[in-house]
């Protein structure tokens, strides 16, 4: 088996794992009432960009090998590094879901009896789930030795994140007021101590 094929297999295993982590929380979210929503066409566009870059474009590449013209030769160290980053991202992703629990939504929504979570991964950064998406995108860039499919994840993450983060923080400030303001003062957004 070639090194490039190994990278594709690791990515497929990772994305299937991602799906099985997410499904139970989506089911549970359907049972908790939404009391306020900021769902908008812009946010849906951001979500679609994330899905396209982190799932659809790489899946298309793995299935068809296209665009082959953007391939470059795979390096064993890159596959190992990509696998470590991707599976660390999945661990963070799972931790954030467990910590958010019934407060989780796929978009900008406030649930019935919504609580502000500031423990577990939320003690380090305000948006650890987005940190996990960024790390997945980074892992994908090392695992898939193709300029388009490899970099699509980071691009999709960036569109989702920058279209959403200000609106999400404004919504949390409106709902939780000084509690969220204090939380903002002690945490960074997605990279501990940096940003
Ligand atoms: C897709 S989740 C992402 C949560 C967070 N931005 C992150 O990256 O971990 C988005 C929803 O989570 C909720 N949320 C975000 N931060 C939260 C927090 N610290 N505590 C409770 N709910 C939060 C909001 O209702 C938002 O609509």
UniProtKB/TrEMBL annotation:
Membrane topology, from the record: Multi-pass membrane protein
Keywords of this entry: Membrane, Transmembrane, Transmembrane helix
Keyword Nucleus listed: no
Organism domain of life: Bacteria
GO molecular function: protein C-terminal S-isoprenylcysteine carboxyl O-methyltransferase activity
Membrane-traversing stretches: 6-25, 45-64, 76-93, 141-163
Compartments reported by the entry: Membrane
Entry-linked InterPro entries: ICMT_MeTrfase, Isoprenylcys_mtase
Protein name in the entry: Isoprenylcysteine carboxylmethyltransferase family protein
Protein species of origin: Ensifer canadensis
